[in-house]
UniProtKB/TrEMBL annotation:
<dbReference type="Pfam" id="PF00067">
    <property type="entry name" value="p450"/>
</dbReference>
<dbReference type="InterPro" id="IPR002401">
    <property type="entry name" value="Cyt_P450_E_grp-I"/>
</dbReference>
<keyword id="KW-0560">Oxidoreductase</keyword>
<feature type="binding site" description="axial binding residue">
    <location>
        <position position="42"/>
    </location>
    <ligand>
        <name>heme</name>
    </ligand>
</feature>
<keyword id="KW-0349">Heme</keyword>
<dbReference type="GO" id="GO:0005506">
    <property type="term" value="F:iron ion binding"/>
</dbReference>
<protein>
    <recommendedName>
        <fullName>Cytochrome P450</fullName>
    </recommendedName>
</protein>
<dbReference type="GO" id="GO:0006629">
    <property type="term" value="P:lipid metabolic process"/>
</dbReference>
<keyword id="KW-0479">Metal-binding</keyword>
<dbReference type="InterPro" id="IPR001128">
    <property type="entry name" value="Cyt_P450"/>
</dbReference>
<keyword id="KW-0503">Monooxygenase</keyword>
<dbReference type="InterPro" id="IPR017972">
    <property type="entry name" value="Cyt_P450_CS"/>
</dbReference>
<comment type="similarity">
    <text>Belongs to the cytochrome P450 family.</text>
</comment>
<dbReference type="GO" id="GO:0004497">
    <property type="term" value="F:monooxygenase activity"/>
</dbReference>
<dbReference type="InterPro" id="IPR036396">
    <property type="entry name" value="Cyt_P450_sf"/>
</dbReference>
<dbReference type="GO" id="GO:0020037">
    <property type="term" value="F:heme binding"/>
</dbReference>
<keyword id="KW-0408">Iron</keyword>
Length: 95
């Protein structure tokens, strides 16, 4: 991921997606491995992203997530994007 997004790839920096003029910054589709890019790219990408956002909002409103410290976070490039060592998190229900 660092080879694509730079040394701070793992940092939470939403501002990285905003240009100097305040617009959303365009990044080539080839940099997003999950859906691939080009003529055979995933046709369901936009449906999938919309569903992911809807589900994420529902879950984030109800639960807190904390990534287990010290875990190695490493993606495995393959047909299906997955984590090499999994991603363990502590989940707590919001009061
Ligand atoms: C998180 C969800 C999804 C992921 C990560 C995903 C990922 C992918 C990937 C990596 C490919 C292969 C692209 C290539 O060969 O270069 C693909 C192809 C495809 N996906 Fe998805 N997909 C998702 C959801 C969906 C959904 C919801 C639909 C349909 C509503 C869909 C329909 C398709 C179709 C039809 C293709 C074949 C496109 C072609 O070969 O021309 N996908 N997808």
């Amino acid at each position: 991921m660092r080879s694509i997004w730079g040394e701070d790839a793992l940092d939470f920096k939403p501002e990285r997606w905003i240009s100097d003029s305040g617009d959303l910054r365009h990044e080539p589709s080839y940099k997003f491995m999950a859906f691939n890019a080009g003529p055979r790219a995933c046709l369901g990408k936009h449906v999938a992203l919309m569903q992911i956002k809807i589900v994420a909002v529902e879950i984030i409103q109800k639960y807190d997530f904390e990534v287990t410290k010290g875990d190695k976070i490493k993606p495995v490039p393959s047909v299906i994007l997955r984590m090499k060592h999994g991603l363990s998190v502590k989940v707590t229900k919001k009061i």
